[in-house]
Protein backbone atom coordinates (compact mmCIF):
# COMPACT_ATOMS: atom_id res chain seq x y z
CA UNK A 1 0.00 0.00 0.00
CA UNK A 2 1.10 3.55 -0.56
CA UNK A 3 2.85 5.28 2.27
CA UNK A 4 1.87 8.76 3.41
CA UNK A 5 3.12 12.33 3.70
CA UNK A 6 6.41 11.87 1.93
CA UNK A 7 7.58 9.04 4.20
CA UNK A 8 6.72 6.36 1.68
CA UNK A 9 8.02 2.88 2.15
CA UNK A 10 9.53 0.77 -0.62
CA UNK A 11 7.97 -2.59 -1.28
CA UNK A 12 10.38 -5.40 -0.33
CA UNK A 13 11.11 -7.10 -3.59
CA UNK A 14 12.85 -9.98 -5.25
CA UNK A 15 15.28 -7.83 -7.18
CA UNK A 16 14.56 -5.54 -10.11
CA UNK A 17 13.66 -6.10 -12.83
CA UNK A 18 11.96 -9.51 -12.83
CA UNK A 19 10.41 -9.89 -16.24
CA UNK A 20 13.05 -7.60 -17.73
CA UNK A 21 16.74 -6.87 -18.30
CA UNK A 22 18.76 -4.71 -15.94
CA UNK A 23 21.69 -2.98 -17.62
CA UNK A 24 23.65 0.24 -17.25
CA UNK A 25 22.68 3.03 -19.64
CA UNK A 26 24.85 5.98 -18.69
CA UNK A 27 23.87 9.19 -16.94
CA UNK A 28 20.26 10.19 -16.24
CA UNK A 29 18.35 12.15 -18.87
CA UNK A 30 16.75 15.50 -18.08
CA UNK A 31 13.82 16.43 -20.29
CA UNK A 32 10.93 18.84 -20.51
CA UNK A 33 7.49 17.41 -19.74
CA UNK A 34 4.40 19.17 -21.04
CA UNK A 35 2.29 16.61 -19.24
CA UNK A 36 3.85 17.36 -15.87
CA UNK A 37 3.45 21.08 -16.45
CA UNK A 38 -0.23 20.57 -17.30
CA UNK A 39 -0.67 18.39 -14.21
CA UNK A 40 0.58 21.03 -11.79
CA UNK A 41 -1.06 23.91 -13.67
CA UNK A 42 -4.40 22.15 -13.29
CA UNK A 43 -3.92 21.93 -9.52
CA UNK A 44 -2.93 25.57 -8.96
CA UNK A 45 -4.85 27.73 -6.51
CA UNK A 46 -6.60 24.78 -4.91
CA UNK A 47 -4.93 24.79 -1.50
CA UNK A 48 -3.18 21.84 0.12
CA UNK A 49 -3.85 18.68 -1.88
CA UNK A 50 -3.31 14.93 -1.45
CA UNK A 51 -1.25 13.44 -4.31
CA UNK A 52 -0.22 9.89 -5.22
CA UNK A 53 3.19 9.11 -6.75
CA UNK A 54 3.76 5.68 -8.34
CA UNK A 55 7.48 6.28 -8.99
CA UNK A 56 8.61 5.20 -5.53
CA UNK A 57 9.88 7.32 -2.69
CA UNK A 58 12.44 9.93 -3.76
CA UNK A 59 13.72 13.00 -1.97
CA UNK A 60 13.37 15.06 -5.16
CA UNK A 61 9.66 14.33 -5.57
CA UNK A 62 8.89 14.64 -1.87
CA UNK A 63 10.73 17.96 -1.57
CA UNK A 64 9.18 19.49 -4.68
CA UNK A 65 5.60 18.49 -3.91
CA UNK A 66 5.68 19.29 -0.20
CA UNK A 67 7.28 22.68 -0.99
CA UNK A 68 4.05 23.46 -2.84
CA UNK A 69 2.09 22.71 0.33
CA UNK A 70 0.76 19.34 -0.86
CA UNK A 71 0.80 15.95 0.85
CA UNK A 72 2.37 12.99 -0.96
CA UNK A 73 1.86 9.23 -0.78
CA UNK A 74 4.44 7.21 -2.72
CA UNK A 75 5.07 3.64 -3.81
CA UNK A 76 7.27 1.93 -6.38
CA UNK A 77 4.34 0.49 -8.31
CA UNK A 78 6.43 -1.43 -10.85
CA UNK A 79 8.37 -3.14 -8.08
CA UNK A 80 5.07 -3.93 -6.34
CA UNK A 81 3.93 -5.70 -9.53
CA UNK A 82 7.03 -7.88 -9.44
CA UNK A 83 6.73 -8.50 -5.72
CA UNK A 84 3.23 -9.93 -6.15
CA UNK A 85 3.47 -11.67 -9.51
CA UNK A 86 6.98 -13.07 -9.31
CA UNK A 87 10.19 -13.25 -11.27
CA UNK A 88 9.48 -15.65 -14.10
CA UNK A 89 6.52 -14.18 -15.97
CA UNK A 90 4.81 -11.36 -14.09
CA UNK A 91 2.44 -10.61 -17.00
CA UNK A 92 1.20 -14.20 -17.33
CA UNK A 93 0.86 -14.52 -13.56
CA UNK A 94 -1.58 -11.61 -13.57
CA UNK A 95 -4.19 -14.07 -14.80
CA UNK A 96 -4.19 -15.73 -11.36
CA UNK A 97 -7.28 -14.40 -9.50
CA UNK A 98 -5.69 -15.02 -6.10
CA UNK A 99 -2.64 -12.93 -6.95
CA UNK A 100 -4.80 -10.21 -8.50
CA UNK A 101 -6.85 -9.97 -5.31
CA UNK A 102 -3.63 -9.80 -3.27
CA UNK A 103 -2.22 -7.04 -5.46
CA UNK A 104 -5.37 -4.95 -5.36
CA UNK A 105 -5.69 -5.38 -1.59
CA UNK A 106 -2.07 -4.44 -0.86
CA UNK A 107 -1.56 -1.65 -3.40
CA UNK A 108 -4.93 -0.15 -4.29
CA UNK A 109 -6.78 0.02 -0.99
CA UNK A 110 -7.42 3.74 -1.16
CA UNK A 111 -10.34 5.51 0.45
CA UNK A 112 -12.90 6.86 -2.02
CA UNK A 113 -12.52 10.55 -2.90
CA UNK A 114 -9.24 10.76 -1.01
CA UNK A 115 -6.76 12.07 -3.63
CA UNK A 116 -6.54 15.17 -5.81
CA UNK A 117 -3.98 13.87 -8.29
CA UNK A 118 -1.98 10.80 -9.31
CA UNK A 119 1.47 10.65 -10.91
CA UNK A 120 1.34 7.18 -12.44
CA UNK A 121 4.31 7.63 -14.83
CA UNK A 122 4.89 4.43 -16.90
CA UNK A 123 3.39 1.85 -14.50
CA UNK A 124 0.20 1.14 -16.49
CA UNK A 125 2.21 -0.41 -19.33
CA UNK A 126 3.07 -3.45 -17.23
CA UNK A 127 -0.45 -4.45 -16.18
CA UNK A 128 -2.51 -7.03 -18.04
CA UNK A 129 -5.78 -5.73 -19.55
CA UNK A 130 -7.93 -7.08 -16.71
CA UNK A 131 -5.71 -5.81 -13.90
CA UNK A 132 -5.18 -2.51 -15.67
CA UNK A 133 -8.91 -1.86 -15.86
CA UNK A 134 -9.29 -2.79 -12.18
CA UNK A 135 -6.52 -0.33 -11.34
CA UNK A 136 -7.98 2.50 -13.42
CA UNK A 137 -11.44 1.91 -11.97
CA UNK A 138 -10.02 1.95 -8.44
CA UNK A 139 -8.19 5.21 -9.16
CA UNK A 140 -11.38 6.69 -10.61
CA UNK A 141 -13.08 6.05 -7.26
CA UNK A 142 -10.05 7.32 -5.32
CA UNK A 143 -9.65 10.61 -7.17
CA UNK A 144 -11.87 13.54 -6.29
CA UNK A 145 -13.90 15.46 -8.83
CA UNK A 146 -11.64 17.57 -11.07
CA UNK A 147 -8.51 15.65 -10.04
CA UNK A 148 -5.73 15.03 -12.57
CA UNK A 149 -3.80 11.88 -13.47
CA UNK A 150 -0.49 11.81 -15.39
CA UNK A 151 0.64 8.66 -17.19
CA UNK A 152 3.30 7.83 -19.78
CA UNK A 153 3.10 5.22 -22.53
CA UNK A 154 5.76 4.11 -24.99
CA UNK A 155 4.71 5.20 -28.48
CA UNK A 156 6.62 2.44 -30.34
CA UNK A 157 3.93 -0.19 -30.86
CA UNK A 158 6.41 -2.56 -32.58
CA UNK A 159 8.92 -2.70 -29.72
CA UNK A 160 9.13 -6.11 -28.05
CA UNK A 161 10.73 -4.63 -24.96
CA UNK A 162 10.40 -1.11 -23.63
CA UNK A 163 12.54 0.86 -21.18
CA UNK A 164 11.57 1.34 -17.56
CA UNK A 165 12.55 4.53 -15.78
CA UNK A 166 12.77 6.18 -12.41
CA UNK A 167 11.07 9.59 -12.58
CA UNK A 168 12.38 12.47 -10.50
CA UNK A 169 10.83 15.95 -10.59
CA UNK A 170 13.30 18.79 -11.15
CA UNK A 171 10.73 21.57 -11.48
CA UNK A 172 7.18 21.96 -12.73
CA UNK A 173 8.20 21.46 -16.36
CA UNK A 174 11.24 19.20 -16.01
CA UNK A 175 11.87 15.59 -15.01
CA UNK A 176 14.99 13.46 -14.75
CA UNK A 177 14.76 9.91 -16.09
CA UNK A 178 17.09 7.15 -14.88
CA UNK A 179 17.02 3.82 -16.70
CA UNK A 180 15.98 0.79 -14.67
CA UNK A 181 16.29 -1.69 -17.54
CA UNK A 182 14.04 -3.11 -20.23
CA UNK A 183 11.00 -5.29 -19.83
CA UNK A 184 8.11 -6.65 -21.84
CA UNK A 185 5.01 -4.50 -21.92
CA UNK A 186 1.82 -6.26 -20.93
CA UNK A 187 0.06 -4.64 -23.91
CA UNK A 188 0.48 -1.77 -26.34
CA UNK A 189 -1.64 1.32 -26.55
CA UNK A 190 -2.72 3.53 -29.40
CA UNK A 191 -4.68 6.71 -28.72
CA UNK A 192 -8.02 4.98 -29.14
CA UNK A 193 -7.12 2.27 -26.62
CA UNK A 194 -6.07 4.89 -24.09
CA UNK A 195 -9.28 6.86 -24.58
CA UNK A 196 -11.30 3.67 -24.07
CA UNK A 197 -9.35 2.82 -20.92
CA UNK A 198 -10.28 6.18 -19.37
CA UNK A 199 -13.84 6.33 -20.70
CA UNK A 200 -15.25 7.15 -17.24
CA UNK A 201 -13.09 10.27 -16.93
CA UNK A 202 -14.07 13.71 -18.21
CA UNK A 203 -11.20 14.20 -20.64
CA UNK A 204 -7.93 12.74 -21.96
CA UNK A 205 -5.20 14.96 -23.41
CA UNK A 206 -2.16 13.64 -25.31
CA UNK A 207 1.40 14.98 -25.58
CA UNK A 208 3.85 13.17 -27.89
CA UNK A 209 7.50 13.84 -27.11
CA UNK A 210 10.53 13.27 -29.33
CA UNK A 211 11.80 10.42 -27.16
CA UNK A 212 8.76 8.22 -27.95
CA UNK A 213 7.10 8.78 -24.60
CA UNK A 214 3.41 9.53 -25.10
CA UNK A 215 2.35 11.63 -22.11
CA UNK A 216 -1.32 11.83 -21.18
CA UNK A 217 -3.28 13.97 -18.75
CA UNK A 218 -6.61 12.59 -17.60
CA UNK A 219 -9.14 14.76 -15.79
CA UNK A 220 -11.58 13.16 -13.34
What's the pLDDT, averaged over the residues? 86
- How many independent structural domains? 1
Helix content: 25-40%
Distance between the termini: 22 Å
CATH 2nd-level architecture = 3-Layer(aba) Sandwich
Number of helices: 6
Largest sheet: spatial strand order: 4-3-5-6-10-9
Q: Note poorly predicted spans.
A: 3-19
CATH class: Alpha Beta
In total, the number of strands is: 10
Sheet/helix structural class: alpha/beta
Q: How much β-strand is present in the residues?
A: 25-35%
Shape: globular
What is the N-to-C succession of helices and strands? EEHEHEHHEHEEEHEE
Major β-sheet profile: 6 strands, mixed
Radius of gyration over alpha carbons? 16 Å
CATH fold assignment: Rossmann fold
Can you describe this structure?
The chain is an alpha/beta fold. It has a single domain, classed as Rossmann fold, CATH 3.40.50. 27% of the residues lie in helices and 30% in strands. The protein has 6 helices and 10 strands. The strands form 2 sheets. It has a 6-stranded mixed sheet with strand order 4-3-5-6-10-9, with helices on both faces. Strand 9 and strand 10 form a beta hairpin. Helix 3 runs antiparallel to helix 4. It is globular. It starts with 19 loop residues before the first strand and ends with a strand.
Structural topology:
Elements: E1 20-21, E2 29-32, H1 34-42, E3 50-53, H2 59-67, E4 71-74, H3 77-85, H4 97-107, E5 115-121, H5 129-142, E6 143-154, E7 162-171, E8 174-183, H6 191-197, E9 203-208, E10 213-219
Parallel strand pairs: 3-4, 3-5, 5-6
Antiparallel strand pairs: 1-8, 2-8, 6-10, 7-8, 9-10
Amino acid sequence: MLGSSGSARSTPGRGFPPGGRALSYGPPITRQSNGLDQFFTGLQDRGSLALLDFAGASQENVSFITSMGHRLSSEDFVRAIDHTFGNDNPVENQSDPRLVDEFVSENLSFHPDSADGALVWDAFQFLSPHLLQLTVDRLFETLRHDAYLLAFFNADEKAREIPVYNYRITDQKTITLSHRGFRQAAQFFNNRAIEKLFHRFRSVKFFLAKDSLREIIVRR
